[in-house]
Amino acid sequence: MSRLHPGVLELDAEAEIERICQAIRTQLSTKLHRRGLVLGISGGIDSAVCAALSARAVGAERVQGLLMPETDSSSATTPRGQLVADTLGIRTLTEDISGTLEAIGCYRWRDEAIRAEFPDYDGSWPHKLAIRGGQEGRVNHFVLVVQRPDGEQEERRLGLNSYLQIVAATNFKQRIRKTLEYFHADRLNYAVVGTPNRLEYDQGFFVKNGDGAADLKPIAHLYKTQVYALAEKLGIPEEVRRAAPTTDTYSLVQGQDEFYFALPYHQMDLALWGVNHGLGADEIAAGLGITDDQAAFVCKDIAAKRRSTRYLQLPPLLVEDVPEIR
Length: 326
Hints:
By secondary structure, the protein is an alpha/beta fold. 49% of the residues lie in helices and 10% in strands. It contains 14 helices and 7 strands.
């Protein structure tokens, strides 16, 4: 029997919730010296759990939630985020960032790159990025998927320059949201909560100085499966717990696994646990019910993402240490 099975991710949810809440209170009072917490509430499971932990740790009256939709956001994003806040008793502000993104060139730069691949694109077609190739034994590459006005979807392999420009443009979204979070944190003398789970934190699935920026990250040690376990114990609405994880960045629905991760989150959690505990590709394959070749690719992909995204975790590099500020 493989050592890799769903049971390895089981935890005492109530005890973990209390441990995290105590850590939040300690960090807030002894290290950050702030009065409360600010976070963006997207309607996804991670921000919902972080909101619930924040409210339990310091009281809902000391948590400020922000709803920050934009042109490409799903119609479900804001209602789900408000549902979470209402369930927890957290006050919210809605800041539509579409105008800011328009003014800063987010949509213009993105559309220019899309037209490089689809010259007849008029700026209104739903679209997304998707990853291809790796699990079939080929080199990973990105494709641009568009939906034409007649409903037909078409995809083309992206050239490097177009890919980088689309990603750079859409990264504005996370960075503008974080700017708003820090504005309200400064206004209220609060700290900013980051919402990555372990899979995202380990694999660099965040934007530097965007959703990667925060004063504390209370669930970065938890696999996403464990985040769902906490969500149930914390009373997160079932509608939020049942929603499929998406990036909510592009106008076509984009699952995290089709954009970044090699497998759906429940399998990626186990694969990452297996790698972290020294299991070989054959044992990971047996535990996940995939082929040895697929497991070998997943292990290789985990290592590659750790290498290529290491710079996201680094603080600014100095020529010489300044010991007085350690």
